[in-house]
Amino acid sequence: MATDQQARLAVELEYFSQHKAEWLAHKTGQYVVIKENRPLGFYPSFEVAYRAGAATFGLETDFLVKQILEHEPVFLVL
Amino acid sequence: MLYGPRLQISIGPPILSAAREQPRSPGKIGSRFTDTDALIDTGAQKTVVALEAVRKVGLSKINETELRTAGGIIKVDVYVASLQFPRCDLKSIEVMEVSGCDLSHIPFYRCLIGRDILSRWSFHYDGAAGTWQITENSTKSWVEPPEGFDPDLWGQGLQRLVLSAVLRSASASQYTDTYNHPPRPAAAAPPIADPSAPAALRPCPQP
User: Fold this and answer.
1) Where does the pLDDT of residue A4 fall: very low under 50, low under 70, confident under 90, or very high at 90 and above?
2) CB distance from B24 to chain A under 8 Å?
3) B151-191 confidence digits (pLDDT tens)
4) What is the mean pLDDT of residues B89-103?
5) Residue A26, CA distances (Å) to A23, A42, A47, B92, B121 in order
6) Which of A7, B112, B142, B175 is such that its CA lies 20 to 30 A from the CA of B83?
7) How big, in percent rounded to 5, are the helix, strand and coil portions of chain A?
């Protein structure tokens, strides 16, 4: 099960890491939607980005919605 | 800790009426929402949902992230969900990110409500009286928490956004409860409610 979960979005996360540096120049803070090796677009908020992805790909499939930040955040949960 | 402020919530897939929905597998129909108790956790930057609930609802994975917990930094999957509050008049959250995590260390809850949700409300905690109150002023369906923005970007802009949301408030919703509920049996955690069961049969966190 854990392996299956890690495999989900592996292609999209790899694509993101390959292009993050170029996107940081002009897209910092925006959210990118990626399905397989194709970015759908850049959006100002998570909700807008997700709705765009769902309208294109549907609700029953995984796609990546990720904010473009120089440093990946680590969130505190105590 | 175990009997702190809590809300009954309904976790489900995002609520997107305009989205193009693809056919769902028969096994998923009827099990798309699950009711559970959620602990309000001001120490949590992000809302966390138990993996058990993630699997039951069949949430879609949209990202991965890292959480700094008492036990160290862990890598988790991020899912997209909706949250509704069936016992109070708080506005539903139609689309939000939730982190999937093992919550077996807090056996009565399958969700920690973090500051990403609390940023929508005014939350008043009266420890001496053992009561708490949520007031919802904003008419917006969602207000991004400060943590969700690059600090270099949000500054004055976010302050204006929050102020604007308050100024545009319509009728405020209010929910008051006590956290001094009698403890439940210390046996195994109660099962997640069957969404097809009548509401009167579902677990209810009343004092």
Assistant:
1) low
2) yes
3) 333 334 333 333 333 333 334 567 777 665 544 443 444 55
4) 93
5) 6, 11, 20, 34, 33
6) A7
7) 45, 25, 30
- B129 pLDDT band, cuts 50/70/90, is confident
The C-alpha angle B147, B149, B155, rounded to 5 degrees, equals: 100
B122 touches chain A (CB under 8 A): no
ipTM: 0.92
Chain A residue numbers with beta carbons less than 8 Å from the beta carbon of B44 are 76-78
CA distance to partner chain A, nearest, from residue B73 (Å): 8
Chain A positions touching B57 (Cβ under 8 A) are none
pLDDT at A24: 96
Q: What pLDDT, on the 0 to 100 scale, is given for residue B61?
A: 95
List the structure tokens of B87.
């016992």
Tokens of B1: 């800790």
Separation between Cα atoms, residue B49 and residue B71, nearest integer Å = 17
Which among B18, B44, B149 is the nearest to A78, CB-wise? Answer: B44
Which residues from chain A sit within 8 angstroms of residue B112, using beta carbons? 77
Report yes or no: A40 at the B interface, CB cutoff 8 Å: no
Is residue B47 less than 8 Å (CB to CB) from chain A? no
